[in-house]
Design brief:
The complex is a heterodimer. Chain A is mainly alpha-helical. Helices cover about 65% and strands about 0% of the residues of chain A. In chain A, helix 5 runs parallel beside helix 8, helix 8 runs antiparallel to helix 11 and helix 11 crosses helix 15. Chain A is globular and about 70 Å long. Chain B folds into two domains: about 200 residues, 3-Layer(aba) Sandwich (D-Maltodextrin-Binding Protein, domain 2), CATH 3.40.190.10; about 220 residues, Periplasmic binding protein-like II (D-Maltodextrin-Binding Protein, domain 2, 3-Layer(aba) Sandwich). In chain B, the strands form two sheets. In chain B, strands 1, 2, 3, 6, 7, 8, 9 and 10 form an eight-stranded mixed beta sheet that branches. In chain B, strand 4 and strand 5 form a beta hairpin. Chain B has 18 helices and ten strands. The longest helix of chain B has 24 residues. The chains are: A mainly alpha, B alpha/beta.
């Protein structure tokens, strides 16, 4: 029988959870608030929280409301929301599309490689499986800058600098150890007897992975996918050093608003808010799957 | 219409569209310009369409990056011959080193209309290696004193055009009113070779100090350096804002604009920010003076120019040259003035701008900016002779890394974590180790 928790303790835990949650969320809330301020209000001392004249100017400037294209299509929202004198400095849509393509592409490619790899290590472990797992993890301990030059030289030779294809491949390779480790952990929780039963019923390797293993591991795969998308979305070192125009994602978009000489906090905040918004929305709608996957097998 | 027909027609249309685009692109040259995020550069980016009116065959792509990221990306790209950029924005620190390494394309072929002799000598000298111009200045800056005229009056003092450090200290203490959050002086304290090291190095020049002697022996154990660092720390402790060790250009700009600084010694480019009534609460109460000195023949002002250059790896040097000629030629300021007013033209590069009455009327800080730039000499920056060029930096490849470490030591001393003497001893040890390792 479950032990009853006193109401006072429950309330205290709830309050503590809220305080911790709000503390963690505060920087994001502050970025969002600052994005609606003028530069002068953004640096005001003491800081102004909500009692200021809210403006969409920063969002207009960083390109949330795109201008009409060369044929005159679109731009009506900009006409409604923005002062005609406010120029549009960035092509947000281009950066956003690059982020989506690179994050989704690297995640899908990673899954294609990681699912069979994790399956083999979880269900057909060999003598060296543990060593291979540790070796894969050890590659994450290498400072990224240590391999920057060789990778750049290879891309120059292949004429693939500033290409979405190369970024998908590189981010896949960078995140692959984590994907394999996560999937391996989830797969280990699935009783091998179920797979054996499927084999006795005539399932081949393909059917076993596709129709038995994968459906049972969906929460784990879903959380792996979500985590990998977040990692790829937030990646800045490789995207900033290997892309310029064609493949530049939202990390480059944010970097373009950082300045050591001149106050651009409000604009930088608007750019940051627009860069994190898609991933924040995705995380909000998939939080149930994410939590379920991350706690998968935690309680037996 | 069958699905097959629709698919066929769509494919044909797509092929036609692709072919048309390819044809159009085949007649145009695309140049990628890497630049930093500041007001003048953003304005240039916004005027791309004006450039395209006269150069419709050149497509301009912009890559705007934070200064340090830009420096790292461009260095890597040039060193490896990546060819990602056709025009790069670099400073006076990089040009002598990169030019000597043959990483940059000579700009000696700029057309006569560029009027190279109009460039300010100090700026031109900082961008020239062995008589060859390797970068064209887009805007130039020095540093000067910006001060609150009302607070100076209230303190019963009058700022001379060329103040001494003793006067600055006296005025800073007199203007400080901690109860009302007014601090006599705001200076850079945030660690970084472009932050506190730039300011302290320029200050050290006016105290007779130098980074290295003629044999490249570090000089942080000299009395001149001790005087410099002790003065800087004492001044900020007596009359600076709390947490000065965390303040860089932006933090001090915010403090000054809110009325919390009596004086601020920093880049001349800040003059247009602090006098802009849209952003600054004290816009109508700002005066300017030359950076201070100690009567030793060197003032504490620096020299910097953000300039446009063509990396040797560019595959479109002609188009890049055309852009540089447009953006840094004499006609560019006219374009900016016509569209955004004379106060917004990029300053500090050409003599003709300071002979233009419309500009002098619109920019009350113009003459002081010019005087500050002219009084800086990057080829002879210190009281005693040195083997390097650069006023607030030493134009050697090792400087950025070494100065970043030394900046952290100086910032720690300002924060009270160590004494000035301990900081200088640490700086000396760092410099000796670095220079030995580099084989100087």
């Amino acid at each position: 029988m479950a032990r009853a928790i006193p109401t006072s303790r429950r309330l205290a835990f709830t309050a503590l959870a809220w305080i911790i949650g709000l503390l963690i969320f505060f920087p994001i809330a502050w970025i969002i608030l600052t994005s609606f301020k003028t530069e002068a209000v953004a640096i005001a001392d003491p800081p102004v929280f909500v009692n200021f004249e809210w403006t969409l100017e920063n969002y207009c400037l960083v390109g949330l409301f795109p201008e009409a294209d060369a044929q005159g299509n679109g731009g009506w929202l900009r006409g409604l929301m923005c002062d005609p004198d406010t120029p549009q400095r960035s092509d947000y849509t281009r950066f956003l599309m690059n982020s989506i393509v690179i994050a989704l592409g690297s995640t899908l490619l990673g899954l294609l490689i990681a699912v069979p790899a994790a399956w083999s290590m979880a269900f057909v472990p060999g003598k060296g499986t543990k060593n291979i797992l540790l070796w894969m993890l050890s590659t994450k301990m290498l400072p990224a800058v240590g391999v920057l030059y060789p990778i750049r030289l290879i891309l120059i030779e292949l004429n693939m600098l500033d290409s979405k294809g190369s970024m998908i491949f590189i981010l896949t390779m960078i995140n692959l150890p984590i994907i394999i480790w996560m999937l391996y952990t989830y797969f280990r929780e699935i009783p091998v007897e179920i797979l054996e039963a499927a084999r006795m019923d005539g399932a081949g390797l393909k059917e076993e992975i596709l129709y038995v293993l994968t459906p049972m591991a969906v929460p784990g795969i879903a959380s792996t996918v979500l985590l990998n998308i977040i990692l790829a979305w937030n990646e800045a070192f490789w995207t900033l050093t290997l892309t310029t125009v064609d493949a530049a994602p939202l990390s480059a978009f944010i970097a373009s608003y950082s300045s050591p000489e001149g106050l651009f906090y409000a604009k930088l905040s608007a750019a940051s808010a627009m860069a994190i918004a898609p991933i924040l929305i995705m995380g909000w709608f998939s939080q149930k799957q994410l939590v379920r996957g991350l706690t998968f097998g935690a309680v037996k | 219409m069958s699905l097959k027909t629709v698919l066929g027609a769509t494919t044909a249309l797509a092929i036609c569209a692709a072919a048309t685009t390819a044809f159009a692109d085949g007649h145009a040259t695309t140049i990628t310009i890497a630049t930093v995020n500041n007001g003048d550069m953003i304005r240039m980016q916004g005027l791309t369409e004006v450039f395209n009116e006269t150069h419709p065959d050149i497509i301009v792509e912009w890559v705007t990056l934070e200064e340090n990221v830009l420096r790292q990306n461009v260095t890597t790209d040039i060193a490896q011959g990546g060819g990602q950029y056709d025009v790069i924005t670099i400073g006076t620190y990089e040009v002598p080193i990169w030019g000597a390494n043959n990483w940059l394309t000579s700009l000696d072929d700029l057309p006569e209309s560029y009027n190279i002799d109009d460039l300010l000598p100090a700026i031109r000298g900082g961008l020239t290696v062995d008589g060859t111009l390797y970068a064209s200045p887009f805007y130039g800056e020095s540093s000067m004193v910006m001060y609150r005229t009302d607070l100076m009056d209230a303190a019963g003092l009058e700022m001379p055009d060329a103040p001494s450090w003793d006067f600055i200290r006296e005025a800073a203490i007199a203007m400080t009113d901690r109860e009302n959050d007014i601090y006599g002086i705001c200076l850079r304290g945030k660690p970084g070779w472009g932050e506190n090291v730039a300011f302290i190095t320029a200050t050290s020049n006016s105290f007779g100090a130098r980074w290295f002697d003629e044999d490249w022996t570090p000089q942080f154990d000299s009395d001149e350096w001790s005087n410099t660092l002790n003065f800087y720390i004492d001044l900020l402790n007596e009359a600076g804002p709390p947490g000065a060790a965390n303040n860089g250009f932006n933090e001090n700009l915010a403090l000054f604009q809110q009325g919390s600084c009596g004086m601020w010694i920093d880049a001349t480019v800040a003059a247009s920010f602090v006098t802009n009534p849209n952003d600054s609460e004290v816009a109508d109460r700002v005066g300017f003076a030359l950076a201070p000195d100690n009567g030793l023949g060197r003032r504490a002002n620096w020299l910097w120019a953000w300039s446009l250059a063509i990396p040797a790896s560019s595959d479109a040097p002609e188009a890049a040259m055309a852009f540089i000629n447009w953006a840094t030629g004499p006609g560019y300021v006219e374009i900016v003035a016509e569209r955004e007013g004379w106060a917004n033209v990029p300053p500090g590069t050409r003599s003709s701008l300071y002979e233009n009455q419309a500009y002098l009327d619109a920019a009350p800080f113009a003459q002081m900016t010019l005087d500050s730039i002219l009084s800086a000499d990057p080829t002879n920056p210190t009281v005693d002779p040195v083997p390097y060029t650069g006023v607030q930096f030493v134009a050697i490849p090792e400087f950025a890394g070494l100065a970043t470490e030394i900046g952290q030591v100086f910032s720690s001393a300002l924060a009270g974590l160590m004494t000035a003497e301990e900081a200088l001893a640490a700086a000396q040890a760092l410099a000796v180790e670095e220079m030995d390792a580099a084989g100087y």
